[in-house]
Each structure stands twice: as C-alpha cells, then as structure tokens.
Here is the input.
Amino acid sequence: MAEERHTHTAPDGTVYEHTHEHGHTHEHGHTHTHANTKAVLNRLSRAIGHLESIRRMVEDGRDCSEVLVQLSAVKSAINNTGKVILKDHIEHCLVDAVECGDMESIKDLTEAIDRFMK
Here is the structure.
C-alpha cells in the first residue's frame, strides 16, 4: 500500500498531519493519524474506570442521588471526549474531504453529528 502524507495548517498556526494509505479497505479508502488519539484513549479509560466505580456504588446500595451525580459526571466526560474526536475529525478528515470533493465523507460527518447530539 502506498502511503501519502499531507499537512494542513489551522488558522491558529497549528500544523496537522495525516496519511492516506491507498489500496486500504477502510470505508473512505484512506486512514488518518490524529494528533489527539492518545488523549481520547486516556479520556475513555478514565470514563470506563468511573463507570466501574459507579457500578460498585449501585452494588453497594449507595444513595440514588450520589449515583445520579456520578452518572452525570461520566456523561459530561463522554460528551467532552466526543467533542475532541469531532474537532480532530474536522481539522483532519473534513479538510481533506473538502479538498478532494468527497461529499460522502461530508454526509457521513453530518449524520454522525446528528447521532452524537441526540
């Protein structure tokens, strides 16, 4: 598979780089390397740990109000993680989709935003 590397500069001067692996069977025929992948994985790990502690709270019969407060915190953490993923996607994939005239990727993003915002 041939790999093609691209860089884009955001208005704030941040340089983003991603690659396309031609011949790859990914949905859009290419893959992207994102700057925030490690941060997203860390956030997800924390949310998973938090959910496990909430499960223990329920198993231990803790007060419903406390459980609801903790669930709200996890929900907020997941939403913030989604925002990081969305920002990363816009700054990388969407820029490339617009440059390539890839309307399918733009449509997919719109549908993903609709599902995420429900």
User: Anything to note?
Assistant: The first strand starts at residue 3 and ends at 9. Helices lie at 37-59, 64-100, 103-116. The beta strands are 3-9, 15-21. The first helix runs from residue 37 to 59.
